Amino acid sequence: MGAFGWFWKAMGAQSERNDKKSKAIVNDSAAATQSLAQLSDAEVAQHARDAVRDGAIADKSAFLAALAVASERRLGMHPFNVQSQAVLRLLEGDVIQMATGEGKTLVGAMAATGFALTGKRVHLVTVNNYLAERDAEWMRPLVEFFGLTVASVTEKLDQDSRRAAYRSDIIYAPVNELGFDVLRDNQITDRSQTVQARADVALVDEADSVLVDEALVPLVLAGNRPGEAPTGHITNVVSRLREDLDYTIAEDGRTVALTDDGAARVERELGIDSLYSEENIGTILVKVNLALHAKALLIRDIHYIVTDGKLQLIDASRGRVADLQRWPDGLQAAVEAKEGLEVSEGGRILDTVTLQELMRRYPLVCGMTGTAVEATDQLRQFYDLHVSVIDRNKELRRFDEADRIYATAEEKNKAIVEEIIAIHSTGQPVLVGTHDVAESEDLAEVLRERGIDVNVLNAKNDAEEARIVAEAGDIGRVTVSTQMAGRGTDIKLGGADEGDHDTVADLGGLAVIGTTRHRTARLDNQLRGRAGRQGDPGLSLFFVSLEDDVVRQGGEDESLSAQPGPDGRIESKRVSDFIAHCQRVTEGQLLEIHAQTWKYNQLLADQRIIIDERRAVLLDTDQAWKEFQQRAPQKAAALEALPEETRVAAAREIMLYHLDLAWADHLELMDDVRESIHLRAIARQTPIDEYHRIAVREFKQLAQRAVDQAVETFNDVLIDEDGAHLNDLGLSRPSATWTYMVSDNPLSGSGNSVMSSIGNIFR
Ligand code: ADP
Ligand code: MG
């Protein structure tokens, strides 16, 4: 807290006041609900509309009462008071923290309806396609009660269906689909081709996941272009390098560096003078580093899997296969080469946007999650968002056991297996959260050998995943999942139909076991939150060893002495405090990485706003034609005979073509600069300053170059009744485009990676 203690106190007082006020409003609304009971549906809907004045909800309790009646009539759920309070906080633009199973889906729909009633269009942002579709259909009757429209946009929708869906008042969509549509809309040459309609509000479900964990994931739109072949020779040379002799891996497992001997060996084998010469530093050295990174730091079955001759990334924060994700092109190619796979074509990057940039485009952002408090700093720093904590409807009856700490990973893993078997023998369902795919499979294998039937969850199908997780509360069920599996799904005791609810409750409810502490307490708490839903009993228990990544990284350079028992267990407050300390250190490291990376992204984000504005002017006015009239008067005069519409459209197309091309060139250049910039640190330049200097200089030239080239094209190209024949000059836009997400930080959140790579760790 330090010097800012006063600030926190002030914030606390503020939110308490809000809390009292909103509780009073909610109490009033309960009374108002009674009086609406006799009214028809249409009258109740009108009552809600009457509560709106001047684009804001003036009478909040009347509004909440109407929503409660509608929810009861259409969804069979009467909102709990805490849910109504949460709705008020969302309408104020906060991120609410509400525990798993407390009914955030209904809260989100009520708040979205409130925004829509005041004339605002809402994007309800979900973490996957499955939830977008599920929630839109589930909440549809509530939204339509008020004469409003709702739709979902998912991966499978074609352009026309998307366009129609985006015209609704409330749109449920996964965050990447929203971003891809923004990128594609930035390539159009006529306003009528726009797919996404502007929204006023982003209401983000699982807000910490989208706004913090995945914030810097770039969404990419690429177009076809025969790419340059990656150099197989470099991969070969690098594949023969030996750890500790030719290269060293840093203690944190994030960086790898050539030793002097290693560098000399590479130079010899490639037949070059120096890797660090001016001529090689931006090209060969970059490729060598990528190949080395792929070889030394990216481990099959931890960071990626290979299926059907293709590389599939494992999403670090969710621990499952990430469809449509790629690493930055060079790295992807390097790993493909290392695995002997056909190197997939990167194509040409046309445009890219990070989730953080995407979210900052909305005039208002609010959100909900079970774990917001621990992300308070990030939410304030990056989005200026305030966190409101909503009480539970029923008291928590989950028992969170103290961590069980072991000296070595081996002793810990033995204990995990025995504990699962012991709990399972009573019939209590067990959900185990592991760190990565390899660990989940190792554990499942050992449990099966001990005669236990195990569901393993590292599926890539969201719907299938949701079903397995939903079944995880059944009698005697053991489910082993990768971390974070099943955000958004509800684990009911006694199976999805709650048939054996009371039996399972008597057994103690769901037992959640974590096989290690995560790098952030938030991820731990997401896992814990799977148990103890809506006042159910439950248990959570984490195992940690002093060899775990979080301890090694967070406790680097610190020494600790402890006296383990005969089974390796350490019971000491000092040691458990130390582990909590290690986790705070790793959290701090993640925040620092986020802040640093954002510094790089922010300037480009500002520059793209300028590009967007220029694009909008070119699309919506005849500015392009006017500029050509000035810069190429003869050619313009020669075209006067053509219909105005044709002339203006041709001018627009030419201008946009060169603007988009210049922007794509700029992104590509800045990407290269960023990849090689840390090398400039060797030359004692501060990388970020250097990066900014180059970005600003290049951007200035970009605008001028785009116009100059457009004028040249305008003079050269044939323009007739059919428009500008850009194809003739080889200036066509890509005939095919595709989208993907880049996992820019392949090592974030990885588990006990080094150990997992050497055989089954549970044996
Ligand atoms: P969360 O997103 O907060 O984890 P969900 O929206 O998935 O929770 O809801 C969890 C469960 O609670 C669902 O089965 C839902 O039907 C139920 N539920 C939510 N609100 C109410 C309510 N007011 N009355 C009865 N059941 C509710
Ligand atoms: Mg949810």
Automatic annotation (TrEMBL):
It is a peripheral membrane protein. It is an enzyme of class 7 (translocase). The keyword Metal-binding does not apply. GO terms for molecular function: ATP binding; protein-exporting ATPase activity. GO terms for biological process: intracellular protein transmembrane transport; protein import; protein targeting; protein transport by the Sec complex. Residues 4-572 form the SecA family profile domain. Residues 85-243 form the Helicase ATP-binding domain. InterPro entries: Helicase_ATP-bd, Helicase_C-like, P-loop_NTPase, SecA, SecA_Actinobact-type, SecA_CS, SecA_DEAD, SecA_motor_DEAD. Gene3D superfamilies: Helical scaffold and wing domains of SecA, P-loop containing nucleotide triphosphate hydrolases, SecA, preprotein cross-linking domain. It is found in: Cell membrane; Cytoplasm; Membrane. The keyword Lipoprotein does not apply. Its EC number is 7.4.2.8. Residues 415-576 form the Helicase C-terminal domain. Keywords: ATP-binding, Cell membrane, Cytoplasm, Membrane, Nucleotide-binding, Protein transport, Translocase, Translocation, Transport. Its main location: membrane. GO terms for cellular component: cell envelope Sec protein transport complex; cytosol; plasma membrane. ATP binds at residues 83, 101-105, 490. Monomer and homodimer. Part of the essential Sec protein translocation apparatus which comprises SecA, SecYEG and auxiliary proteins SecDF. Other proteins may also be involved. HAMAP family: SecA. Belongs to the SecA family. Part of the Sec protein translocase complex. Interacts with the SecYEG preprotein conducting channel. Has a central role in coupling the hydrolysis of ATP to the transfer of proteins into and across the cell membrane, serving as an ATP-driven molecular motor driving the stepwise translocation of polypeptide chains across the membrane. NCBIfam families: SecA2_Mycobac (TIGR04221). This is Protein translocase subunit SecA. It comes from Corynebacterium phoceense.
